[in-house]
């Protein structure tokens, strides 16, 4: 908050956090403990918090039991950074791509790269070679870290392999398992890194075309980590990493925040419900993060799960990706009496900032995603008129704070659309904030489809459909599904005389996209409904699709 606003803090409603003079909501959390050092990289900031460490094990592989201590972890980070700098020539501003399933080594690579002032970008192992090549063309990585199995998807990019293995002609410039054993030279000169420098370039799904690289600075990431010092955290927590580490939540929370807090993370290479439960039992995990469909699966299979697995260590379940209904929340608490369930809300563009429920009392405000995060300011803006509104009024949620990204990489148009000149991020979500400062998500202005917590951009699938020779026009909408949340459904207008079938449409798309982006349902229509300006009337199609449910 600005000094002038601090002096008027008595005018801020202590209950809602709303300041009428500028129509802004302020966080009711403790202030962020930010560093005044502007030449501080996020790796150095995290390593400087070693005094907070509460245990010895930093990361543990659930499948193999292999673990790495905090001291060995930081030794590995320094050794890998030394090799990348001296042997590979990575410098400040260079982009390094990580393409890997969840691994104990992803945190090592991330922190090593960012310590050099270089930039981390990630891609899903499920992405096709075509999808990855488009990201490579946009971000222009100098190097990629991957596994032998995924190396063929990285044509033309020099790679560092996690371990030795066949790569079908890829240009291998290093083996990570060897780098972590190499003694550092001791004479590497570090480039000066400023907090405004880009540290991470994660790609966010878009509704109007291909995904966009989000420019996150060292300062943004430091603010995210610092937020965890201001918010309550149970001592001696053992986190089970069930989310992809290529995703913002996995990287920011399971790599950075847990390291700074000195907490242990047990890593699942890929999600499987039974493997997750077995890992909770084996490693006495205390905390999980899950998407709503997995919470529903745990409720439906509760009798079997509790009979087969000892979950007595589990205390906390955190949920994001979509709001949980009161029925689902109460259903979970009835089945798992000793586990508290907390919701949260954030975006790739906000670097973990948004809202969260951090106590049992807060979690009982059903339908809410919690209170504004520490250091966050919010506005509720009428999307039609631009008027800034107040308590209990619904509009688009705008966020501002030190975690908010700087915009999109090499995409000025998208940056201007999502970020205003004063630094406000337009989230694209319709929300309201109630009398007690709780944030409620009402609907999405954005048209992203949420499939098992993954974001599926309709425009990307529509572009692929329009490339089919038998398709005149197409639109993709979310179709509600109890198991996965939403699944992509296509409305297709065929060319005259075409006998294109539903299966042919589904197969055509499935060969070109990651599994979670596949179209699951197809309906044929004479023409796609559109506005006078040519925009697809998705709501009309959603009403048609759901009218018989």
Q: What is the overall shape?
A: globular
Radius of gyration (Å): 23 Å
Helix content: 25-40%
Tell me about the largest β-sheet.
16 strands, mixed
Q: What low-confidence regions span 5 or more consecutive residues with pLDDT below 50?
A: 1-7
Quickly count the helices: 17
Secondary structure tally: strands: 28
CATH class value of one domain: Alpha Beta
What does this structure look like?
The protein has 549 residues and is α/β, with parallel strands linked by helices. It has a domain at 449-546: ANL, C-terminal domain (GMP Synthetase, Chain A, domain 3), CATH 3.30.300. It has 17 helices and 28 strands. The strands form 5 sheets. It has a 16-stranded mixed sheet that branches. The protein has a 5-stranded parallel sheet with strand order 6-5-7-8-9, with helices on both faces. The protein has a 3-stranded mixed sheet with strand order 26-27-28, sandwiched between helices. Strand 10 (198-204) and strand 11 (212-217) form a beta hairpin. It is globular, with a radius of gyration of 23 Å. The termini are far apart.
Brief summary:
The chain has 549 residues and is of the alpha/beta class. The protein is 28% helix and 25% strand. The model is unreliable at 1-7 (pLDDT under 50).
Main features:
549 residues, alpha/beta, GMP Synthetase, Chain A, domain 3, 16-stranded mixed sheet, 17 helices, 28% helix
Indicate the topology.
Elements: H1 3-7, E1 18-19, E2 24-26, H2 42-47, E3 57-61, E4 67-69, H3 70-88, E5 95-99, H4 106-115, E6 119-123, H5 129-139, E7 143-146, E8 159-161, E9 172-175, H6 176-179, E10 198-204, E11 212-217, H7 218-230, E12 238-241, H8 248-261, E13 264-267, H9 273-283, E14 287-290, H10 292-300, H11 302-308, E15 316-319, H12 326-335, E16 340-346, E17 354-356, H13 360-363, E18 368-372, E19 377-381, E20 388-389, E21 395-400, H14 412-418, E22 425-433, E23 438-444, E24 449-451, E25 454-456, H15 458-465, E26 471-481, E27 485-494, H16 502-510, E28 521-524, H17 538-546
Parallel strand pairs: 3-13, 5-6, 5-7, 7-8, 8-9, 12-13, 12-14, 14-15, 15-16, 27-28
Antiparallel strand pairs: 1-2, 2-19, 3-4, 10-11, 16-17, 17-18, 18-23, 19-20, 19-21, 21-22, 22-23, 24-25, 26-27
Helix pairs in contact: 3-4, 7-8, 10-12
